[in-house]
Amino acid sequence: MNTNFWKIETLETEKSRLEAELNSGETDYHKLEKTAMRIGEIIKLSDEKMFRWIQLDEQA
Questions:
Q1: CA separation (Å) from 7 to 14, 22, 31, 42?
Q2: How many structural domains comprise the chain?
Q3: Range(s) of the domain holding residue 55
Q4: What is the pTM of this model?
Q5: Along the 60 residues of the chain, how does pLDDT read in single tens digits?
């Protein structure tokens, strides 16, 4: 399995867990803000890795 795919899958798993935390009814603003920021980072990383994976696949 391609390591980029594995990393994308790991990021998606973390994102799902964090989204569940956001939907849990948590009211601590700082925790919510930190969680939301991490989700944004994950989306950016995942997009970058997916783009790279597509590039490598097209070269094969």
A1: 11, 23, 25, 11
A2: 1
A3: 3-59
A4: 0.81
A5: 567 677 889 999 999 999 999 999 888 999 999 999 999 999 999 999 889 888 888 887
